[in-house]
Design a protein that fits this description.
The complex is a heterodimer.
Chain A lengths: L2 H27 L9 H4 L11 H12 L3 H9 L4 H28 L6 H9 L1 H32 L4 H21 L4 H20 L5 H6 L5 H18 L6 H26 L19 H8 L8 H8 L10 H30 L4 H4 L3 H21 L5 H37 L3 H5 L1 H17 L9 H30 L5 H27 L5 H28 L11
Helix pairs in contact in A: 1-5, 1-15, 3-15, 4-13, 4-15, 4-17, 5-14, 5-15, 5-21, 5-22, 6-7, 6-21, 7-11, 7-17, 7-18, 7-20, 7-21, 7-23, 8-9, 8-12, 9-12, 9-18, 11-18, 11-20, 12-15, 12-17, 12-18, 13-21, 13-22, 15-17, 17-18, 18-20, 21-22, 21-23, 22-23
Chain B lengths: L2 E7 L28 H20 L5 E6 L4 H14 L4 H11 L3 E5 L2 E5 L5 H18 L4
Parallel strand pairs in B: 1-2
Antiparallel strand pairs in B: 1-3, 3-4
Helix pairs in contact in B: 1-4, 2-3
Classes of the chains: A mainly alpha, B alpha+beta.
């Protein structure tokens, strides 16, 4: 099957989803009102509440939700065949992510721009706010662990990426100093930054950095582990310095990289006309392979539906919405953009890799190989696409690795920082002064817990620890989405409208998540994996807690007193 | 089309590279600490005063007032370019405006950058924008 045909078909479905389903949601479910006074107008201050052109807002929203996760999940999930992975990405995007992202904006707009976390407490109950924080705690722990492994694997497989990635740090700091201190143009420095970064790819290619000897000298079995330690040391330092020193300046580089990568994927796809070499449905699965049903639905979280989008949608986007009707364009279209990134990952790992001469069946021989090598396969696939537009494969591979590592490292920096705040909050609640007051101690906890997971040898003889860890991360992300969907469903029900568009994906996600957690728990116990088993059990308890809260809230909303729809109008 | 006034300044939030599973927001974020973006708040408040002064000075339909983050270059660059072309600026002139306009802080009126790098006082901004709108209108006979 030509990859271009698949891409075109998906784009048609996305277009139909936008044209018809989002219109249905806008008119019948969310009942958008062009005359409703949005928080941007009601509290207009030019600071947080600013009525903003919908195209501008889409730019802010989309760059805020895009990252590395919609690449990793699909790159693993094609192991079960490209059709199931693609179907979940397409259907998930159209019927779950679109509903969730769009709805998160609307509910926030109708509640004076309040955040989804606050709304969880207000719309469902106060207990749910605690549930929300606990889910985020586990999500951040897992995301930091899996991205450390992703980066470690990429450095081992692409030692040419080491120099550009580590050079990006002083490069970003330099851009920050230039922009913030001289208060001059951001355009030229950011373009120069990207150009220098990509020039360094040539140098990195000529001088690959390998640390196998150092890892062996330290007694580490896997070189990847040493990279993971290095990345957590980096994250510890990066999360302790002001955001304007590194985190924000790197946004200037990453913003360009996001669109460059998307351009390379889809341009290479059109020019190269590669065919998909993966089976539509992989029936040649070794014994012990996790079943695609339910694991597919937690392996691909971001790219099909991601709970974190609700934080962006309700955190800043809702406060800038000029007209309530713009929520459809910004929210639903943003979800389609994320789905397109996942589509690119599927095509890179099923069609692009053949352009560099890789055999799909060997790359995806078993779940352990597939999950450990998934991002490497994505990188190779992008190199394949890039080769069609004249980029040498050796350079294209490092280019793709640099893009993915840049995003993953940014996530680690942010994730550790966020986790530090949550650890401090927990320290406050538990009256543990050293955690509550000492940021260094809180950061150490935020780093050491995921580092322990990243270094864990678990997974049993099959050795699919990373794949299992990734699915655990997926479950926490799906729970975050489930919580937001529950909030939206309760709000829709209270408005006297049909909440099935939220309830169906909510029930589906919770069912798949709980099922996957139970199956994982059984595997961990059988393998005597006493690190992942308790972790899985904790997340399972949170999932069941969410099921109960969602059920109670929906029942109450359905039988209780209905709230009159908001009537604040221009 | 109405005249376009762009107020360029950063939001107190991270915008790219990690949003899918961890994004650092500012004062109104669910998780995190607004203190991390204290420097941005100062600029946001200052530009907010400019925004409110311009909003009070110009009717909503006549002037499209947009606050945009300089990292949103995918929208900002083509917009300044288009506005400049509409006024008949040369490519070199537009490039000069772009360099100054895509900045930490900037005020851009119909493709021309009036302030770059610093946030002007509200009255100063209103006066400058008024003068530039008059110049822009004369450069665009259709208006």
């Amino acid at each position: 099957m030509p990859a271009l045909v698949v891409a075109a078909a998906v784009m048609v479905v996305f277009a139909l989803g936008y044209r018809y389903y989002s219109k249905y949601l806008a008119e019948r479910i969310y009942a958008l009102d062009a005359n409703f006074v949005t928080p941007a107008h009601e509290f207009e201050d030019g600071v947080d509440y600013v009525p903003t052109n919908k195209h501008v807002l889409f730019g802010h929203h989309f760059t805020s939700i895009a990252g590395a996760a919609p690449i990793v999940g699909p790159a693993i999930a094609v192991f079960w065949g490209w059709v199931p992975a693609l179907l979940w990405v397409v259907l998930g995007t159209v019927f779950a992510a679109g509903v969730h992202d769009f709805g998160s904006i609307v509910v926030s707009v109708r509640n004076k721009g309040r955040n989804i976390g606050t709304l969880t407490g207000a719309v469902i109950n106060a207990r749910s706010r605690t549930l929300f924080l606990l889910i985020i705690f586990f999500l951040l722990t897992l995301v930091n662990a899996v991205f450390a492994i992703v980066i470690g694997n990429l450095f081992v497989g692409n030692p040419g990426a080491v120099i550009p990635i580590f050079a990006e740090i002083p490069l970003a700091i330099g851009i920050g100093q230039y922009i913030y201190r001289s208060r001059t143009s951001a355009l030229v420095p950011s373009i120069v930054g990207v150009v220098v970064l990509y020039l360094l790819i040539g140098i990195g290619s000529a001088f690959p950095i390998e640390i196998d000897g150092a890892a062996a000298a330290l007694g580490l079995e896997r070189t990847r582990d040493l990279w993971a330690i290095i990345m957590f040391v980096y994250a510890f330092i990066a999360s302790r310095i002001p955001v304007w020193v590194l985190l924000q300046p790197r946004d200037y580089i990453n913003s360009h990289q996001l669109f460059i990568a998307l351009g390379v994927i889809f341009l290479g796809l059109v020019v190269g006309l590669d065919r998909i070499s993966a089976p539509a449905l992989n029936t040649n699965l070794p014994e012990g392979t996790p079943n695609w049903f339910p694991f597919l639905f937690v392996t691909i979280a971001c790219g099909a539906i991601s709970g974190f989008h609700s934080l962006v949608a309700s955190g800043t986007t809702s406060k800038q919405l000029d007209s309530e009707t713009d929520a459809r364009y910004v929210g639903y279209m943003g979800a389609l953009g994320e789905g397109s990134l996942a589509l690119g990952a599927i095509l890179a790992t099923t069609a692009g890799i053949t352009a560099v001469g890789l055999n799909w069946s060997e790359q995806y021989a078993d779940f352990g190989t597939a999950s450990a090598g998934a991002v490497g396969n994505f990188v190779q696939g992008i190199a394949g696409f890039a080769s069609h537009i004249g980029v040498p494969t050796s350079i294209g591979t490092i280019f793709a690795a640099v893009v993915v590592i840049s995003f993953a490292a940014t996530t680690m920096d942010t994730g550790v920082r966020l986790q530090r705040y949550i650890v401090q909050e927990i320290g406050e609640l538990a009256n543990i002064r050293i955690l509550a007051r000492n940021a260094t101690a809180a950061t150490a906890v935020a780093v050491l817990v995921p580092l322990a997971l990243a270094l864990a040898p678990g997974g049993g003889e099959q050795g699919f620890a990373f794949g299992r860890l990734w699915t655990l991360f997926g479950t926490t992300n799906q729970l975050t989405a489930g919580l937001a969907l529950a909030v939206i469903a309760v709000w829709v029900t209270k408005q006297g409208r049909n909440a099935l568009p939220q309830i169906v994906p909510l029930v589906f996600l919770l069912f798949m998540t709980v099922w996957a957690l139970i199956l994982n728990l059984r595997t961990f116990v059988e393998n005597r994996d006493w690190l992942l088993a308790p972790l899985d059990l904790f997340i399972l308890v949170l999932a069941l807690w969410l099921v109960v809260e969602a059920f109670l809230a929906l029942r109450k909303a359905g039988v209780g007193e209905r709230v009159a729809p908001e009537t604040s109008r221009r | 089309m109405a005249h376009r006034v762009l107020l360029v300044r950063e939001w107190d939030a991270q915008t790219s590279g990690s949003g899918c599973c961890g994004r650092l927001g500012g004062a109104h974020c669910d998780v995190g600490d607004g203190e991390a973006f204290r420097h941005n708040r100062v600029e946001m408040e200052a530009m907010g005063a400019v925004y409110r002064a311009l909003r009070a000075a110009f009717p909503r339909g006549a002037v499209e007032l947009t606050v945009v983050d300089p990292r949103n270059m995918i929208w900002l660059v083509p917009t300044i370019w288009r506005d400049g072309r509409r006024r008949g600026m040369s490519a070199a002139e537009i490039w000069r405006q772009l360099k100054r306009g895509v900045s930490y802080n900037a005020v851009v009126v119909d493709g021309r950058t009036l302030f770059s790098g610093t946030v002007p006082a509200p009255e100063e901004a209103v006066d400058a924008v008024l003068a530039e709108l008059a110049a822009s209108a004369s450069a665009r006979p259709s208006l």
